[in-house]
Amino acid sequence: MPKRTSLKKTMVCCMRGGGGLTALLMGIMALVVAAVLRPSAGYAEQNGISAEHTVYLPLVTRSGCTAELPRINAPKFTGAIPFERTAIAWFGRVSPTQNYTDIRVGYNATELFVYLAIFDRHLWYDESPTPQTLTQWDAVTLLLDTSGGAAVSPSSWKFVAQLYGERSSQRRVVYRGSATGWQQTSVAFDALPGWRGNALNDNSDSDRGWAMGFTIPFSSLGIASAPPDGTSWRMAVIVHDRDTRAGPPIGDQAWPPQTPLETPACWGVLNFGVPVYQTSATPTGSLIVRRPTERSPLVPDADVGAAIANQCPGDENHIWNEWGNRNYGRAPDFNIQNQSDVSDWPCFAKYYVTFPLDGIPPGKVIVSAILTLHQFGNSGSAGQAKPSWIQVSVAAGDWNEQTITWNNAPIAYENVAISRVDPVTSSINWPGVPRTWDVSYAVARAYARGEPLRLVLYSADSDYHSGKYFVSSDTGDWNIEGRPRLDVRWGEAR
Hints:
Layout: E1 9-10, H1 29-32, E2 35-37, H2 41-47, E3 71-74, E4 87-95, E5 98-107, E6 111-119, E7 139-145, E8 156-162, E9 172-178, E10 181-185, E11 190-197, E12 209-217, E13 232-241, E14 250-255, E15 268-272, E16 277-279, E17 285-289, E18 301-305, H3 316-322, E19 333-336, E20 349-355, E21 364-378, E22 388-395, E23 412-421, E24 433-438, H4 440-449, E25 453-459, E26 468-471, E27 485-492
Parallel strand pairs: 1-11, 3-15
Antiparallel strand pairs: 2-16, 4-5, 5-6, 6-12, 7-8, 7-13, 8-9, 9-10, 11-12, 13-14, 13-15, 17-27, 18-20, 19-26, 20-25, 21-24, 21-26, 21-27, 22-23, 22-25
């Protein structure tokens, strides 16, 4: 766990300005038979992931469940797992009585890392804990199933850890599935807690949140080393909340939402390795997609959270009651920001954008697609700004530019791309500094489904002052070149 979320730190003001059961949809195969997902050698070298596995475009359905399974494509690293380059996903809401959670996931040859950063107004742990009562206080449950089965089995694992000021063997427990349900067992794993606020177990409204970092050796799960790239497990996370000593516990929040504890088939998908889209098709056509005029409805976009107009507010009423419910859909610019200090969550921001794909003729194969954003600034004063690894995910649903907020925005369906974005360190010429992401995978998926491309950008950064400022679709017509742009090339299906 990064040092800024280590135990017993007093609250820091946020005004610093920093801040494997896969079901293939057979109807698309004619369109993607020439296209495969393969971590290319260059991508592998740049991002520290394996480049050995080839799979066809995976579209996962939630058989017997209520929606498609969201998935996390976990990057593989050599040696230490870099916090800021782990895959990021999220769930929950920000309110006085509800918690929001960022999930970070990565792995190396020997262990799986899952980190939860939780926005929480009141931090409470059990002074006399038992395994049975851990989840009645602030705690997290991490569920894993290594076989992708439909029901709890010996390949199912449940790790529970309760908030505390330091590692505590009394506040963690692990269960393994069996024919009769969950059975407590003993295997090696680490669960490192951290928190930021006034104090644990008090009634102050000045707490900000807490974190839990799970490190699970693959050997503890009966696996000699990391699974081969392309392997898919089931995974779910449940956050338990308590806001007073007397209780009772507040309702749980989960990823995926409304996760059934006893049904691994309805948990999310944890995929080992990051897919990269490749095809042997020859380009025969191309298209540039961006908003043509300032008031056009095309290419809607919106910042949520700490938009540039709402940077790092410190007022208690605002951050818990208003921050998560504000809309910035018509702003001419936007911010993308995250960091490891959970107390600074009022500085965090995500960006949503939707590109129509109806200009691509039917029956084609997507050859490539590049997203370009133009950066004009960053958070922090001169010399403070740090690089970011900004991730692109497919949004799990539609949204409205005029009403989207941090709290009602769709979660990520799947992370699909990542690029390093350095700070702007000198004056710029408009339209700004172009930053690009390869979103061919996401475009091929959306095109095959007959949908627009719905993307969300966020980061797993650790450093303060990691925010990056970009030009939005709503910028004036003088800066059309700076608007978010999608360049697509296609070829012929074989």
